[in-house]
Amino acid sequence: MPQGPRPDVRYLLAAALLGFVLGAFLVGSLSHANALAAVPPEAESRIARAVDEPPGAAASAPAPTSGRAQDVAPESDDTKDLTARKLTIPVQGVGAAQLTHTFHDARSGGREHEALDILAPRNTPVIAVEDGTIAKLFLSKAGGTTIYQFDPSREYAYYYAHLEHYADGLAEGALVRRGQIIGYVGTSGNAPKDTPHLHFAIFRLTAAKHWWEGTAIDPYGVLR
């Protein structure tokens, strides 16, 4: 009557199979490490710089406009264009007289704030400033829970940060209407935990139309 392999043969077979699996794992790990080592230093710095920048970023740097060329002048054509649109103030119940000019406030690393902080109680609705498209929902170390919205012409991006959470059902690619609730005021990211507010920025997109890259425009002059 045929008999199966002896116990010692079975152990040898099991050991050989285990060795094969471990060897394949080590080869894969080394290949991955070599691929990372091959990333040029300048590309690595671009990735590390992104808080609110490229997808897959380490989400560790400060502003969505770090790829900018320069700030837009207060009386630029962009500012006039946006002012003529009569954008809605993005925090429900807040009037223009309550806004404070914070665009040039100093921030860590010698950078400027390049945004408008709008204080409001936690969970106050955040609303779309005009019609547009949700370009990106992004979680960053500095901005926390954030939204990037493109305007209808895809010339500008509106950036909403430090949200407590998104509105139910909000999704990338969704069309939104002026005044639609898209999120709620909070303190996510590096916002002081006792100071709920919306960090709101506007920037002109580059020709590449990257959601993380553009030239900052002062929202205070536009919304006032």
Number of strands: 9
* Low-pLDDT segments, ≥5 res: 24-63, 65-70
Report the C-alpha radius of gyration, rounded: 24 Å
Order of SSEs, N→C? HHHEEEEEEEEEH
Distance between the termini: 94 Å
Largest sheet descriptor: 9 strands, antiparallel
Helix-and-strand structural type? alpha+beta
Number of helices: 4
Helix content: 10-25%
- Into which percentage range does the β-strand content fall? 15-25%
Gross geometry: globular
Arithmetic mean of pLDDT: 76
Could you explain the architecture of this structure?
By secondary structure, this protein is an alpha+beta fold. It has 4 helices and 9 strands, in the order H-H-H-E-E-E-E-E-E-E-E-E-H. Strands 1, 2, 3, 4, 5, 6, 7, 8 and 9 form a 9-stranded antiparallel β-sheet that branches. Strand 4 and strand 5 (about 155-165) form a beta hairpin. Residues about 25-65 and about 65-70 have low confidence and may be disordered.
What is shown here, in short?
With 224 residues, the protein is α+β, with helices and mostly antiparallel strands.
Keywords:
alpha+beta, 4 helices, globular, 224 residues
Summarize the SSE layout with pairings.
Layout: H1 7-37, H2 41-49, H3 77-84, E1 116-119, E2 125-127, E3 132-140, E4 144-150, E5 156-166, E6 175-176, E7 181-185, E8 197-205, E9 214-217, H4 219-223
Antiparallel strand pairs: 1-8, 2-7, 3-4, 3-6, 4-5, 5-7, 5-8, 8-9
